[in-house]
Amino acid sequence: MAEFSVIGERVPRVDAREKVTGEARYAADYSLPGMLWCKLLRSPYPHARVLNIDTSRAEKLNGVKAVCTGKDFGGWTWGWMSSTRDESPLAVDKVRYMAEAVAGVAATSEDIAEEACDLIKVDYEELPGVFEPEEAMKEGSPSVHDYVKNNISVEYHWDFGNVEKAFSESYIVREDRFRTSRATHGYVEPPATLAYYDPSGYITVWAAKQSPYFHYRHLSACFKLPLSRVRVIQPFIGGGFGGTKNDSLGGDFCSVLLSKITGRPVKYVESMEEELVTSRRRHSMIVYSKMGVNKDGILMAIHHRVIADGGGYTAIGPLSLYLAGFATTLPYRLPNFKYDAYRVFTNNPIGAAMRGHGVTHTRFAAEIQMEMIAEELGIDPVEIRMRNAIDNPEPGAVYETINKVLVKTCGIKEAIQRVADAPLWRDRNKVPNKDGDISWGVGLSGTSYLGGARQMGHQACAAIIRICEDGAVNLITGATDCGQGSDTVLCMIAAEELGVRLGAIDIKRVDTAYTPVDPGSYGSRVTILAGQATQKAARQAKKQLLEAAARNWQVTPEDVEIRHGRAFVLSDPEKSMPFDRLARIACYSGTGAVILGTGYSTYGIEPLDLVNGIGNGGTSYSYTAQSARVGVDMETGKIITTDFTIASDCGRLLSPLTAEGQIEGASIQGLGQTIYEDFIMDSGKTLNPTFLDYKMPLSMDVPAIKLIDVVTDDPDGPFGAKEASEGSIVSAPPAVVSAIHDATGVWFKELPVTPERVVQALKNRKNKGASAAP
Amino acid sequence: MRETEGSPIKQVRLTVNGKAYGLDVQPGKTLLELIREDLGLTGTKEGCGLGECGACTVIMDGKTVNSCLVLAAEADGKQITTIEGLADGDRLHPVQQAFIDHGGLQCGFCTPGMIMSAKALLDENQNPSDEEIRKGISGNLCRCTGYTKIIESIKAAAGNAGGR
Ligand code: FES
Ligand code: FES
User: What is the ipTM of this complex?
Assistant: First the structure.
C-alpha cells in the first residue's frame, strides 16, 4: 500500500471555520443596493386551464415594479432531454400540479410582492385530475400532457437472458407488490437566488444550485444570450441531495426576467412551505417484483415491473427510471433479468432525483423479497446473501453482469460478513426480544450504488491548479460542494499530489465566468471525476515545479521530490528548500514561468444507454451491508431505532471524517423515508407541507451508528476511491424493514412503515390468525 | 410577516453581541429579520420561518429562542447573542472548535443555530449526558449529519466550554 501524507488523515473540512463562525454566505445572505424582491403566484388547482391572467391591480400597488406571466417567456421550455422539454418557467395555458407558478412579481419588499400576488386575478377552468399512476396510465384517464398517450412519460423494456424459462425452472417463485414513500430532500436551506440582468446584456446570479452549469445553460437558452454572458456564482449551498437544486425553478427565471424589465437586482427566496409543496422530490414507485430461486436459494431470475409517479413534468425522470433498472443486477449474481418500467404523468408535484436515486426503490423490493424467500426456504439471511453475492474480482479481472455492468472491485461479501460478525447481529439472540409492549428485532441488508454517474451528453470535468509565487495554491474546478464535503476531498487530493500541506490549497467555488464547465454534484460523481481531474492537474503543475527545482540544483527532474511542503534532491537530501521558495524560483524564472496545471477526467465517457439498459451507469460501484435494531411498540405501532452497524466498501477512504459523515447522514435520511417521511396527498394537495407534519428524524430519533470500513482499491478512482453516502441511503430501508419483521413477524412492503400501518397490520394478523402483509 | 396598515413604528433598544442598538421597527417585524436585515448579521439562518427547524436559534437573555417566532418589539431591552458573537477575536468558542475538529457540520446551514443551542446547553450543564445533549438540540433540524458527529462534537466541547 502506498504511503500517503494527506489522504486518509482525519482532517477537518476546509470550509469548517467559515461555517462555524457564520461567515459562510448562502444565496439568501446576498443582497445588492436597489434590490427588489420576487414572489410567485401559485395555482390553487392541480389541473386547470389558464384562461386569463389580469395583473393590472397588482401593477398599481405601491412598491410593485414589474409583473410577469408565462407568456413573457416567449414559449420557451426546458427539460432534461431535448425530447422532454415540457416545462415553462411559468405555466402558460395549463397548470399540471397544485402550486405550479403562474405569475411573478418584483416589488420593493417581500411583503409587498406577496400582497401583489394576491391582487393578480387568474381565470381557471378546472380540469379533472389524476393522482395515482396506475390510474393515470389507463385508457381514458385525464391527459396531463397531450403529446403522450395514456400519460406515459417514459418507458423502458429491457430483457436479459430468459426470465420465463428461469422462472419455470425455479424452485420458488414469489410475486409481491412494493411501494416506496413520497419522500423529499429536506435540506434546511430553501431554494434562493439573487439575479441581476445588466442592461448591456449580461446575467449574473448567485443561486443555490448544486449543478450551476445546468442553470447556466438554462438561462442562456431562455434569455437567448451566449453562454459567455451568463455568470452563475455559487454561494455556499445549504444541502442539495439532487432534484430541486440540480434544476432551475420558476423563481430563478422570473428573477432574471424581472431584473431585465426593471434594471434592478431581484432576489427570490422560496418559503419552506413552497419548497415542500413543489420540490422535485423522489418518485414514489410501485415495484411489482417477481423473483425465482433454486432450492439452495440461488437467484435464477428477477422481473421488475415499475410504475413511478412522475407528477406534472418529466424533469430528470428518464434517468430515475434508468437507475431503478440497471443496478438491479448488483450486488448479487443475477443470470436473467427483465425490466418493464413506466414513469407516469399525474397531477402531483414532479418526481425527480434524490440521493440514492432510482436504485433505492428496486433494491428495497429485491432485498425484502429475497429475505421472504430465505424465510420460506429456512435459509439464514446472511447465508442467502453470501451464496448470491458477487465475489471481489482478482486485481485486473472484471466481473460482468448480464446487462454488461463492469465490476472491478466488490467488497459486498466482506461487508456482509463483517456486519454479521459485529455484535449487533452476532449477539442478537442474546438480548431479550420482548420488554413490556416493546418487541425488539434486528435486520440486515446488502446493497450497492454507483459512483461517477455517467450522463447523456455533456460529461466534461476539468481542474486547474495555479501555483502562486508565495507557495499558495489555487484549485479551480467546476464541481460544486453542496455541503457534503467534496471541496475538502479535492483539496486533499491536490495537497497529496503536490506534496504540500492541506492548508496551502485554496479551492474556488464555481463561477461560470472562470471555472471549467462541469455537471456539478450529481450521482456521486465529484470525488471520482473531479478528483481524477484534480489529480492530473496537480501532477502537471508539479512537473513544472520539479523542472524548475532541477534547473536550480543542476540535477534531473526525476531526482527531485516534494513532500510535506519541502522540495529536495532524492540522491542528495541535504539539498532542500521549502515549497514556497521553490514556488518563487519557479514563478520568477522567466517570462513564461506561469505555473498552471490542467487536467480533465477521462472516466465515464461512454454515454448512457437508456433505451436498452446495457452497460455502465457509473464509473465504479460501492457496496454496503447494514444491520439495524428496532423496538416496535406492539400497542401503538411506534418504532424506535437504537442501533445501526454499517460496513461500506467506498474503495479507499480519502477523507475519513468526511466519508463517515456522509455514511451516517445518508443512513439517517434513509431511516426517515423508511419509518417517518411521506407527503400525505389528497387529490394533488399536500396535507403536510411543514417540517412539523412532514416529520424528519431529529436528534432524539437517531440510533447509535457503528461504521466498518471495507477497503478495496478501485482502479477507476483517485487513490482507489469510490462513492460514499448514497450507499447507506439504499441500505437503510431494507435493513430497518427486515428488523421490523424480526420484531413483529410482519413483512411491510409499503414505505414508510408508520405506526398506523403497524397497528393495522397487527390487527389484520390477529383477525386472520396468519402472517399478513399490508 | 404582513405590515398592518397605519400601525405605529416602534423604537426598540437591544444589545446584540455586546453592542447596543436603537432601531425603529415595523410592528410585524421578527427578531430574525431585524438581525439579518437591519443589522446585516446573516450568520443566523432562516429555514422554515415557523419555529420548526431551529436554524434561526439565538440566545436571548441566556435562553435559546427561535428568532423567527420572536417579534423584534419583544426583544426590547434584551441581550442577544448570535453566532457572530461567540468567538473572542480570532479565538473560537470551544463549541465552534469542537464542531470543526469532530466533523459536526456538513452544509453548515443548521450549524449556527445548532452551535447556539449547544452553547446554551453547556452554559447550564457543563457535563451533559448523551441523552441531555440529544434533548438540548432536539429543536434543531440537521439533514446532513444524522446528528452523530454533532453529538460527538458537543460531548468533546463539554468541560472545555465552561466559563465562556
Ligand atoms: S427558521 Fe426559525 S425555526 Fe426554522
Ligand atoms: S449540516 Fe446541513 S443541515 Fe446540518
Answer: 0.96
Q: Looking at A560-616, list the stretches that DSSP marks H as alpha helix, in order from N- to C-terminal side.
A: 579-587
The residue among A263, A278, A293 that closes a domain is A278
Nearest one of A375, A311, A378 to A144, comparing CA atoms: A311
DSSP bridge partners of A290: A175, A303
- For B114-149, what is each residue's pLDDT tens digit? 999 999 999 999 999 999 999 999 999 999 999 999
A502 within 8 A of A461, measured Cβ to Cβ: no
Q: State the DSSP string of A428-466.
A: TTTS-SEETTEEEEEEEEEEEEEES---SS----EEEEE
Of A235, A262, A278, which closes a domain?
A: A278
Residue A141 included in any domain: no
In the 8-state DSSP scheme, what is residue B91? B
Q: Under 8 Å CB-to-CB from A626, ≥6 apart: which residues?
A: A419, A444, A445, A446, A447, A644, A645, A646, A647, A667, A728, A731, A732, A735
A244 has which bridge partners?
none
b/e per residue, A373-396, with b = 16+ CB within 10 A?
A: bbeebebebbebbebbbbebbeee
The label of the residue with cell 424465510 reads A375
pLDDT, tens digit, for every residue of A694-708?
999 999 999 999 999
CA dihedral B62, B65, B67, B68 (to 10 degrees): -170
Q: Using the beta-carbon criterion (under 8 Å), do A187 and B109 form an inter-chain contact? A: yes
- Do B148 and A190 make contact, defined as CB atoms within 8 angstroms? no
Q: Are A417 and A386 in contact (CB under 8 A)?
A: yes
Neighbour count for residue A533 (Cβ, 10 Å): 30
Per-residue model confidence as pLDDT tens digits over A641-655 = 999 999 999 999 999
Cell readout for A312 is 406534472
Interface test mutation site (partner A, options B3, B102, B135, B148, max chain A beta carbons within 10 A):
B148
d(CA A712, CA A447): 16
DSSP label of A180: -
- Report the CATH number that the domain containing residue A493 is assigned in CATH: 3.30.365.10
Which homologous superfamily does the CATH classification assign to the domain defined by B2-83? Beta-grasp domain (3.10.20.30)
C-alpha cell at B92: 473560537
Length, in residues, of chain A = 774
CA A302/CA A340 separation, integer angstroms? 11
CA distance A627 to A420: 8
Instruction: Specify the ligand 1 atom closest to the Cα of B57.
Output: 2
How many Å lie between the alpha carbon of B51 and the closest alpha carbon of chain A? 9
| CA of A658 vs chain B CAs: smallest distance (Å) | 7
| Three-state DSSP state, A49 | strand
**Grid cell listed for B121:** 446547553
**Which residues form the domain of A298?**
281-454+608-768
CATH class of B94-158: mainly alpha
Amino acid identity for residue A395 in this structure = P
Q: Is the pTM of this model over 0.90?
A: yes
> At residue A578, what is the residue type?
P
Q: Nearest-CA neighbor of B106 among A20, A708, A467, A57?
A: A20
Q: To which residue does cell 436528534 refer?
A: A699
CA distances A387 to A170, A327, A380, A417, B91, Å, are 16, 19, 11, 12, 56
> What is the model's pLDDT at position A2?
57
Instruction: Give, in order, the Cα–Cα distances in Å from A239 to each of A357, A477, B47.
Output: 16, 19, 12
Ligand 2, from B53, B110, B150, B153: best to mutate by most atoms within 8 Å of Cβ?
B110
